Amino acid sequence: MIKAALPQGFRVGLVPSVVRCHGGDVLLDTHSGAMTRLRPPAFDLLADTDQVIVTDATSGALARALMHRGMADPLWSGTPQENLSSLTVVIPVRDGAEAVARLLDSLPTGLGGVIVVDDGSVDSQRLQAVSDGYAARVIRHTSSRGPAAARNTGAGAADTEFIAFLDSDVVPDPAALNTLLREMRDPLVAIAAPRILDLPVTRPSWLTRYEHARSSLDLGTQGGRVAPATRLSYVPSAALVIRRCSLAAGFDESMHVAEDVDLVWRLVAGGWTVRYQPAAIVRHEHRATFGPWLRRKAFYGTGAAPLARRHGDLVAPMRVPPLPALAVVATATLTPVGAGVGFVAAVSQLGITAYRLKRDGNGIAAAPVLTAMSLVSTAAQGAAMLNRHHWPLALVLATRSRRVRAIWAVAAVAEGVADHRRVRADLDLPRYLLAHRLDDLAYGAGVWWGAIRARSVRPLLPALPIRRKRSANGCGMPNPSNCQLNSPNQAVRADAFAVDPREKDTPR
């Protein structure tokens, strides 16, 4: 039986993007615009430290709620020293014996086991010999069934509490697995994922320098909770530590791409927590030539269609409220009428935001800032979507309209310049822009190809923002369906809970 209560002494702290306003009893996430109003018990627990230490049910419920809303992360101290015997490493692979040897050589001692799943290798004897040299168990598929099936086979053979899925082309840093296991001290964490960086190369090309700064596998320096339609919407399966009892049906074996995203979203929907921990570093052998690199980007794009079929508009390329979208689109027409419509839409959004803030007792001082955040976010999403998901449509329109060509060109350059500045790439701007646009063209082509094959436009359609709903038990506690819960936090009544149930996402 798994207990959902956080252990005594567990510490969480507000994330850097959260500020306290309105006398300190309102938390505002300056990244997402989400707001939470604190009741007096929560205000007292946070005090002046912006930290919560779990000592009883109330502090545990507050810590849980803040983490669940992405406003707080666990605070760790010292070097992680976890019980590695509770962890089995599963390596799905097809051929690639040299890469497997490199990975096995990097693993720490004291693991609960190492399983290499040979997914129909041509030279299975060589892979067997390499694995035998490191006392790793080999399970063979007579024919290739795909990475999802290989991971499920390995998980089914493991008998430890935790499983680390490591692709054969990665190398974990010495402390990576210990650091990820430490995240499992929270009993609701189903998956902990590391930051994935590139393996060093002797002679880096401008493509490898672009990938170093902008790899699809690297989710950045800021950790946090992973959930669809958030800053961290997925984690790649190249390296994951998973609580075995949370896997249930495991990876969807019918999916040969985006099966990792699907698993994460199913676990989150079931009430589990997925965390990204960039302090754990795993190195990956990135593709270094344009042909394989572009094909891989397009392959990733084809995953949008099966995700849309399973998860609906969670895969939407753009998620914006109506009025800011109208303001941005109207202004982008570069006409007097469009400018007027955009101004009216922006002012209307400001009025709605102020009304909702006042209604919820938060004061209206933050309304201009929240409205500006919404407008800037909408414009940024629009520029990215125009150049990534919807470039085929933009191309067709550009052949018919000089104004569309101008808007598209400005969006392509402005978004690329902003992205270059954000990631601080060790690559000059012209070549970065070229690589970034090729990246988007390949991914977008994959999205359209997948949509055509699935005969569905859902992967291409924008969606409205997700509005968070309060949970039925009134205290924000998730309720995983795969492991029975027995938590003192669940006994906390809504009227005693430390976070005001009126808390809202960004007023729309």
TrEMBL record:
Recorded GO MF terms: transferase activity
Domain of life: Bacteria
InterPro entries named among the record's database cross-references: Glyco_trans_2-like (IPR001173), MftF (IPR023981), Nucleotide-diphossugar_trans (IPR029044)
Domain annotation Glycosyltransferase 2-like: ranges: 88-217
SUPFAM superfamilies in alphabetical order: Nucleotide-diphospho-sugar transferases
Keywords: Transferase
Annotated NCBIfam families: mycofact_glyco (TIGR03965)
Protein name (Swiss-Prot/TrEMBL): Mycofactocin system glycosyltransferase
Natural source organism: Rudaeicoccus suwonensis
Organism taxonomic ancestry: Bacteria, Bacillati, Actinomycetota, Actinomycetes, Micrococcales
